[in-house]
Design a protein that fits this description.
Layout: H1 2-25, H2 29-40, H3 57-76, H4 80-85, H5 87-111, H6 116-127, H7 131-141, H8 149-182, H9 189-216, H10 218-224, H11 230-250, H12 255-267, H13 272-296, H14 300-305, H15 307-331, H16 336-345, H17 351-360, H18 366-392, H19 394-400
Helix pairs in contact: 1-2, 2-13, 2-18, 3-12, 3-13, 5-6, 5-8, 5-15, 6-8, 6-17, 6-18, 7-18, 8-9, 8-17, 9-12, 11-12, 15-16, 15-18, 17-18, 18-19
Length: 412
């Protein structure tokens, strides 16, 4: 027990140091949490015969709670009325974003000789921007009040909705039948397809029931949290979202999607602001553990071994994301300059790419278990830092792109 407590203490100490460094250098803390986990884990500290954090069941469970709370809070931000009001613009910009970036990642995976399921996972990793990093940087840079904020946030909304469906599908493919059939790329495809079909039926059946409960259970969600004591309020919230996510995971359904839907249920309960105020620190702590856990399970030597596909992914997907964001900004009617800033603003990748990597790590093939997680970690490290810097120095990007109009009242 003492050893476990010491490891937990080391985890929090490393995360605290990573947070301090992130504040000092002005970058997102997410890649630094991952790097901290790599340094404090068995592949760096362990090899140096220093005390290290093991990748045990306790750490994995705490990391799962981090995933659940991240997606739960995302669900809290969704309102059907808000989505419907801007659905046309959101759909246009989001469709452009998905059509450019998701197939590009899939094509890269297939070019590397991977199976369809493995390539589909890579497609998701390079497609989804980081809502956490992008939103925080928008606020820090003051872009949140500018015209480009609307298409950026609208595209993030579309991505988050699409990724919920995507996670439900790929979870069934990886856990329900993809390992030995489709993901394996060999024989037994018919059996694999049957297993995937059954898993998808269970997944969408469970999520369908949960969606009905969310749609018609507003009074239930309101009454559950109708309590004045802070402790009881926090515990009741967790007592709903964590068990539902656990049931989903036991059925082979994405716990992240289940938590997202529960968040949507609580969003209409009248308690959203209080939930965000009281549980945000809890979310941030467990999210830090999740990112740290990703690093603990990643061998830096493996990341080095995927340097070539990593470089290809960065070089291909960075301009593709800028282009799709630019086109999305134009779909919103923005000027060329502001549309370019939309593209730059969508470059950072982060939490969702790592969620997909964690899912891949539970697969049965070497590419799923080792290559994709290592590639995803390296990709997030590069893209989160690169994206933040590009947003901070968007003026340099504008100068390099010779199509930007001179600043004027109309373009600003």
């Amino acid at each position: 027990m003492a050893a476990g407590l010491l490891e937990l203490g080391e985890l929090f100490a490393v995360c605290a140091i990573a947070g301090a460094v992130a504040l000092r250098v002005g970058l997102s803390v997410i890649p630094l949490y991952v790097v901290g986990g790599m340094v404090a884990g068995p592949f760096v500290a362990g090899r140096a015969t220093l005390p290290y954090v093991t990748n045990g069941e306790l750490l994995a469970t705490l990391a799962e709670v981090g995933i659940v709370l991240l997606l739960f809070f995302l669900g809290l931000e969704f309102s059907l009325d808000r989505l419907l009001a801007s659905r046309a613009k959101i759909t246009r910009a989001g469709a452009i974003d998905a059509a450019v970036n998701l197939p590009l990642g899939i094509a890269l995976g297939l070019a590397l000789g991977w199976s369809v399921v493995e390539a589909l996972l890579l497609g998701g990793i390079v497609y989804i921007s980081s809502s956490a990093i992008v939103t925080k940087t928008l606020i820090d840079l003051g872009w949140i009040a500018d015209d480009e904020a609307e298409p950026i946030l609208g595209t993030l909304v579309f991505e988050d909705l699409l990724i919920a469906v995507y996670l439900a599908i790929v979870t069934s493919l990886v856990l329900g039948g993809g390992g030995g059939g489709l993901a394996g790329g060999g024989g037994g495809i018919v059996g694999g397809v049957g297993g995937v079909a059954r898993s998808l039926a269970v997944a969408f059946g469970f999520l369908g029931l949960l969606l009905v409960a969310v749609q018609y259970g507003t009074e239930f969600f309101r009454r559950v949290l109708d309590v004045s004591e802070t402790e009881a309020f926090v515990l009741r919230t967790l007592a709903v979202v964590v068990p539902v996510a656990g049931v989903a995971l036991a059925l082979g359904v994405s716990e992240a999607v289940a938590a997202f839907l529960v968040g949507m249920g609580f969003a209409t309960s009248g308690h959203r602001e209080r939930i965000e105020q009281l549980l945000a620190p809890v979310r941030d702590v467990f999210a830090a553990v999740f990112f740290f856990w990703i690093g603990v399970g990643t061998d830096p030597l493996t990341v080095v071994s995927v340097a070539v596909p990593l470089a290809a992914a960065v070089l291909l997907t960075t301009p593709a994301k800028v282009l799709s964001g630019y086109l999305g900004g134009r779909a919103y009617g923005l000027s060329e300059r502001r549309s370019l800033r939309v593209g730059v603003g969508l470059v950072p990748r982060g939490e969702f790419s790592l969620v997909i990597a964690a899912l891949a790590a539970s697969g049965s093939t070497p590419v799923l278990r080792e290559t994709i997680p290592a590639l995803a970690v390296g990709y997030v490290l590069v893209m989160s830092a690169l994206g933040t810097v590009l947003m901070q120095r968007s003026d340099v990007v504008e100068a390099l792109v010779g199509r930007v109009r001179p600043a004027s009242g109309a373009s600003r």
